[in-house]
Amino acid sequence: MTHDTTKDPRILAAQLACALLKKSVKQKTAVQLKVSRDRLNEPAAACESAVMTLMYMYQVPEALAASEPIKNISGAVKFLTGAYGNVLAAKDDHTLLRANIRWCLRMLDGLEDRFGNPGKTLASGVDLVVVQVRNVVKSDNFWKTRVTDGHGEYTVMTNMKDVAADTRLAAAFLPPREIGGIVSEAMFLGSGKRTEPVGTLLDEDRADAKDAAGILYDELAKHH
Fold it and tell me: Which phi and psi angles does 172 have, rounded to 5°?
């Protein structure tokens, strides 16, 4: 059995992460890196090469998840995570650069697990996760929220008026972007309260991710 990997949403989204990572490693950060910035090019290129290999393997998702390119990505991500350790640990750093690095590493590190999703829509190319809202602050025409997925905290800008602290919502971790002058690292998938544990990964059958798929489609179009 073959699978058209050239159209697989998980691989397309990972390819976007590689393109964004390539740009990010070239940018200077205010925080000192643990290695020379020149040493970041090789693992970033290794991720790009591995994703390109996956795109033309024409194997079913189960085989892709256990493939050599996935192992290569895992090793490169491990190195990059260590190299960017100081940046990732800088919780007061709310720059787009830090958010992009976090997203790229999350995307590449979670690619193996994402191959377990149905893969029906573009939304399956990113993490759809149950998060808990920590706090909510009005910010001009939006609400600035801080959420946790059980592993880290993220800023989510929203225009949902009924978002409240101490509630669980579904969120899509899309490429970070500035909304109202503030970097947003995800978007809520509606205001429906979730009962699953924080950090639960959802597939597109368990969340209304149409808007997330549309945004991801636009982001992919910008890089092709």
Answer: -110, 125
1 band by pLDDT with thresholds 50, 70 and 90 = low
Same fold, 5-116 and 124-206+218-222: no
- Per residue in 139-175, pLDDT tens? 989 999 999 999 999 999 999 999 999 999 999 999 9
What H or E segment, with its residue span, contains residue 170? strand 168-172
Percent of the chain at pLDDT above 70? Answer: 99
Q: What is the 3-state secondary structure (H, E, C) of 113-168?
A: HHCCCCCCCHHHHCCEEEEEEEEEEEECCEEEEEEECCCCEEEEEECCCCCCCCCE
- Tell me, what amino acid is at 182? I
Asked if residue 224 has pLDDT above 70, the reply is: no
Q: Considering the chain, what is the average pLDDT of its residues?
A: 95
Instruction: Name the nearest CA neighbour of 99 among 87, 109, 108, 110.
Output: 87
What is 124-206+218-222's CATH number?
A: 2.40.50.140
Q: What is the phi/psi pair of residue 45, to 5°?
A: -65, -35
CATH code that applies to domain 5-116:
1.20.1440.150
Q: Where are the domains of the chain?
A: 5-116, 124-206+218-222
Compute how many other C-beta atoms are within 10 angstroms of the C-beta atom of residue 84: 24
Structure pTM? 0.95
Sequence-distant (≥ 6) Cβ neighbours of residue 57 within 8 angstroms = 5, 63, 64, 67, 69
Which residues, other chains included, contact 29 with Cβ-Cβ below 8 Å and sequence gap of 6+?
87, 97, 98
